UniProtKB/TrEMBL annotation:
It comes from Salimicrobium halophilum. Belongs to the ABC transporter superfamily. Residues 328-342 have a biased composition (Basic and acidic residues). Residues 322-342 are annotated as: Disordered. This is Oligopeptide transport system ATP-binding protein.
């Protein structure tokens, strides 16, 4: 049995707004195994960030934010923790790296002080040993002259160095899970590659698991072990990187993969046509129905659940996945032998 650090069951995060209920995350199941890098991918607005912030309990405190389901961290449900207990868990056991390093860094304090604060708060370490830890962490993330840099302020760091500083901060208490939300999106390509290399090396050296939120399939191919593909608030496919890239089963995943440029090819890219559904007003049945070239009657009536595709741990939520698993009672629809249009 896999050694799961995190297991999320039927996570729903709904926002109650003046325009109605936004079902940003709507029944997500996922798990992160010890030492693995799991990617959550999908188009903008599909619920990736809301999923990660719900896991960290950064969403859910306001009366307009309703979070339900189970978020089991080493078997304990984070949804039943108090804010005080969560403050202990955040930064120590699970930490987060955001797209913009200045979300995590305070411009008014030295970078070293901000890293050292983590062991001071979470492990009750003294200032001297925590400062030393800060320098060790800056060394670990490849910042040159770490003693000097520790005494500098964030504005004295370049963008890539700031993100390394945030990674150093997230590592300071040796967490077993880092949630990284588009950590390289704001960086230029060369620096992006360096930060990805750094994350991979950290996982290899320390065994820290990483949940990587990204819309960039290049990052997934480069860095990750497993992938969960999200569409309109739900996971529609889950498998290893090889499963998803070489044998995608859900028409949405197929569309994503076919919209990638092929090395050396001059063929025009084929984006997925249409738009995701409005999260205020979701359709009955499968949420991909209006963009799916294989749509059948059943897709407009019932939502498909994740079921094993070609093997047990490669799953897809699609009525094309075989009659036994999905009851398959409506395969009489519009496209018995659909033409691929992606
Ligand atoms: N506080 C909020 N109130 C209402 N709707 C919200 C709130 N926060 C997020 N949403 C909506 O929830 C949906 C999912 O947002 P989320 O930020 O998780 O998307 P994402 O997949 O991370 O996209 P991106 O890649 O653009 O960051 C979006 O439609 C967004 O507008």
């Amino acid at each position: 049995m896999a050694d799961n650090i995190l297991e999320v069951r039927d996570l729903k995060t709904h926002f109650h707004t003046n325009d109605g209920v936004v079902k940003a995350v709507d029944g997500v199941d996922l798990h992160v195994e010890k030492g693995e890098i799991l990617a959550i991918v999908g188009e903008s607005g599909c619920g990736k960030s809301v999923t990660s912030q719900s896991i960290m309990r950064l969403i859910g405190a306001k009366s307009s934010e309703k979070v339900s389901g189970e978020i089991l961290y080493h078997g304990e449900d984070l949804l039943s923790k108090t804010e005080k207990e969560m403050r202990q868990i955040r930064g120590k056991d699970m930490s987060m790296v955001f797209q913009d390093p200045m979300t995590s860094l305070n411009p008014a304090y030295k970078v070293g002080t901000q890293i050292a604060e983590m062991p001071i708060i979470h492990e009750k370490k003294d200032k001297k040993s925590s400062w030393k830890r800060a320098i060790d962490m800056l060394t670990k993330v490849g910042i040159p002259s770490p003693e000097k840099r520790a005494s500098q302020y964030p504005h004295q760091f370049s963008g890539g160095m700031r993100q390394r500083g945030v990674v150093a901060m997230s590592l300071a208490c040796d967490p077993d899970l880092i949630i990284a939300d588009e950590p390289t999106t704001a960086l230029d390509v060369t620096i992006q590659a360096q930060v990805l290399d750094l994350l991979r090396k950290l996982r290899d050296d320390t065994g820290t698991a990483i949940m990587m939120i990204t819309h960039d399939l290049g990052v997934v191919a480069e860095l990750c072990d497993r992938v969960a593909v999200m569409y309109a608030g739900k996971i529609v496919e889950e498998g290893t990187v090889a499963d998803i890239f070489d044998n995608p089963q859900h028409p949405y995943t197929q569309g994503l993969i076919h919209s990638l440029p092929k090395p050396g090819s001059r063929e025009r890219l084929k984006p997925i046509e249409g738009q995701p559904p409005n999260l205020h007003n979701l359709p009955e049945g499968c949420r991909f129905q209006d963009r799916c070239p294989f749509v059948m009657d059943v897709c407009r009536e019932k939502q498909p659940e994740l079921v094993p595709a070609d093997k047990q741990d490669h799953q897809a939520a699609c009525w094309l996945m075989g009659e036994e698993e999905n009851d398959g009672d409506g395969r009489t629809g519009e496209s018995e032998e659909p033409e691929k249009t992606f």
